[in-house]
Amino acid sequence: VGKELVARTIHRNSLRSRERFVQVNCAAIPEELIESELFGHEKGSFTGATEKQVGKFEQADRGTVFLDEVGDMSAKTQAKVLRVLQEGEVERLGSARTIKVDVRVIAATNKNLEEEIEKGRFREDLYFRLAVIPVHVPPLRERADDIPLLVRHYMDFFSRENNVRPKRITQAALDLLQRHRWKGNIRELRNTVERMIIMTPGDTIDLADLTDTGRSPLAGGRTGASGDGDAAKVGTLREFKDNAERAYLVGKLRENSWNISKTAEVIDTPRSNLYKKLEQYQISQETDG
């Protein structure tokens, strides 16, 4: 929805703007590495620690640290983050020395933290430490007036990136984009516009280009498939659909740092179904990452 843009704007318009803005995606870092990423470690503090590492809080000293998807942190990591907020100091793994840090913390999540607290998955004391100035960023479907601006921005961007003539979009097509639910928010809109720029043969994007099931997720109002290959080279409709679905899944997995649970949530499918698709199309991070 643009959480990072909001965080960067807060930093850029603050007295800390000359210092560093450090972003951490808490959902993308494996549990066994997140403490090292946040707080740093000394050489030899654990297997594989071949050199000293400065943590994100130290890197952001006098600046801003943005903890994205903070609701995905483990209880152990939450306790250590709480200490940083309370005491203003960090302790690297493998070190007994504490280091004072002065950081602004901006935290973001797509979860309902009040519900997570009730279920025992998020610390209430950390929640109240973080929720000093709550900023609600509405989903794209609640910001329909933003969609024409975003569509035209991405149309210009992808026209330049793909070295194609700029296209225009009809008002009817824009109206359909404004009515779409956009479960994937900005990423889904961005991917849709890129697909339209690449796969629309003419100079104008119209309703037919948006509702063609081979081209767009907008048919039937559901998230659909994207194809990277040339459709003319595919022998059958089944092969085209399979290729398009595989490309779509790989793209969504990359966007979500190969987090299976998050990807399944974004594309609105059960995790078990996503695993079946990965097996069916032989998708893996090693080969498609």
Q: Topology, please?
A:
Blueprint: H1 3-12, E1 21-25, H2 31-39, E2 40-41, E3 53-54, H3 56-59, E4 64-68, H4 75-87, E5 89-91, E6 98-100, E7 104-107, H5 113-118, H6 124-130, H7 146-161, E8 168-169, H8 171-179, H9 185-199, E9 204-205, H10 207-211, H11 237-255, H12 260-266, H13 271-280, H14 285-288
Structure description:
The protein is mainly alpha-helical and 289 residues long. The protein is 46% helix and 10% strand. The protein is built from 14 helices and 9 strands. The chain has a 3-stranded parallel β-sheet. A hairpin with a 6-residue loop joins β5 and β6. α4 crosses α6 and α12 crosses α13. The two termini are 24 Å apart.
H and E order: HEHEEHEHEEEHHHEHHEHHHHH
Our estimate of the beta-strand percent is: 5-15%
Major sheet: arrangement of strands: 1-4-7
Weakly predicted, low-confidence segments: 220-234
Q: What would you report as the Rg, rounded to the nearest angstrom? A: 22 Å
The largest sheet, given as strand count, sense and whether it forms a barrel, is:
3 strands, parallel
The residue fraction in helices comes out at 40-55%
Look at the structure and give the mean pLDDT. 85
Indicate the structural class. mainly alpha
Q: Termini distance?
A: 24 Å
Coarse morphology: globular
**E-strand count:** 9
Q: Count every helix, treating DSSP H or I runs of 4 or more residues as helices.
A: 14
Features:
9 strands; three-stranded parallel β-sheet; 289 residues; mainly alpha; two-stranded antiparallel ribbon
Short description:
The protein has 289 residues and is mainly α. It has helices at residues 3-12, 31-39, 56-59, 75-87, 113-118, 124-130, 146-161, 171-179, 185-199, 207-211, 237-255, 260-266, 271-280, 285-288; strands at 21-25, 40-41, 53-54, 64-68, 89-91, 98-100, 104-107, 168-169, 204-205.
